[in-house]
Amino acid sequence: MSVLPRILYLFQTLPISLPRLFFKRLNSMFRTFVWNGKAPRVKLNLLTSPRSMGGMSMPHIWHYYCATHMQRLMEWGKNASPKLWVGIEKRFAGDNLAVLPWMPRNLASPLHNALPTTLATLSVWRSLQTKLPVAPYPSPLMPLQHLPVFSRHLIPTAPTDDPPSPLPRHFLTTGAQVTEDRLPYSRPLGFLDKFHLHRLISYLGSLAPLDKYCRPLTIFESISHRGTTPLHSISLFYGLLQSLSSPPTKFCDKWEASFRITLKDEDWSKIYTLAHCCTPSTRIQEVNYKILYRWYRTPDRLSHFSGGGGDLCWRCS
After folding, report:
1. Rounded alpha-carbon distances, angstroms, from residue 173 to 140, 178, 179, 279
2. Is 117 found in the same domain as 26?
3. CA 291, CA 304: separation in Å to the nearest integer?
4. Would the pLDDT of 95 be above 80?
5. Shortest CA distance to 218 belongs to which of 101, 106, 122?
6. 261: containing domain
7. Residue 163: its pLDDT value, please?
8. Are 164 and 156 in contact (CB under 8 A)?
């Protein structure tokens, strides 16, 4: 599809906030092209699902739009990004731009002077956090030094001149405070240090249960924590968003009800793979997907419409 690279180019060069109506119109144009102006017989969310989930891998424009903004988040997190636009956005939004995606919404500093592109990326990121498990709140990457109750005495000590940024894993384990011998300090804690530590943990508990800070990192959080942008990042993040979206399984339930069996996810995965990998012929693949989506009306279904006739196959009767 030659249209997709052009759309991605605009998404990357103009990372502005786009209304939902824009994506609805694009999807309407795609549906008109795919179905040749006729009424669609397969839902759009099924067409845009990956082939590994039984879909047709038609481009999901909203996910591509989100993937371009996720790439921008990766550039924000770099200590010295070669991209000139990163320095410009930090000049207007502040040097703490990299920590904004991981901060609670009510604690994020107001960005009065931020550029529209910065606000658009944050808006898309907040929307993703609520709709998909990309990085559920609270994140284990929450920068504790930017919380209002954090004291500079709690900065972990390190042999280098640049101490590591304090994260919840430095103070919590399995939803409870770590023992004093496992704290990231080379000195014994005094009374004032213990007071600041107790206040910090109490504050984290008021935001969310402590065990949520100790969950494993998601795929995007792991990539972001490395501090480097991977190659083909837009394709990588797009595939991640596609895999996190719940695939439509309505036709699966109907097939299981017809055969009175229950298939496992591994069995359905093999069926999806067989539908498009069994032959290089696109016509045969089309027939396979039509059968999978219950496109053809079998005698069993026609018998319910006509009120008469047998429900057996024509070849079997």
Report:
1. 11, 6, 9, 51
2. yes
3. 19
4. no
5. 101
6. 250-306
7. 53
8. yes
